[in-house]
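User: quick one, fold this
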Amino acid sequence: QVQLVESGGGLVQAGGSLRLSCAASGRTVNNRAMAWFRQAPEKEREFVAVARWSGIVISYNYADSVKGRFTISRDNAKNTVYLQMNSLKPEDTGVYYCAAGEIYYSSTFYYTKGPSYDYWGQGTQVTVSS
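Assistant:
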């Protein structure tokens, strides 16, 4: 089992920044993919970003809506993934969830889908005021 604990959410004005953290504990050796998803009120959960660990290199993918504003990073030594969010917009408001999984597909498609992930955090609220 893997436990994921998010932190760093809060209330910020549009244009501001927040940094989310997700610490993994337990059986973390197979967390090849660690990702962030978000869910706004009355909307479906959506992919935000993923850090993919091949065993040699880390690669990154982002949703089009956050490219150039958000940066995901991963510290394998600490079993932690971060999401630096800059130039925040009101439409970024939602509950942000960390996810981890043992994903071996090469296609980015699978990394953007929630069912590909085995473990989820409890979520942290991000609210961006206009």
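User: anything notable?
Assistant: The chain has a mean pLDDT of 93.
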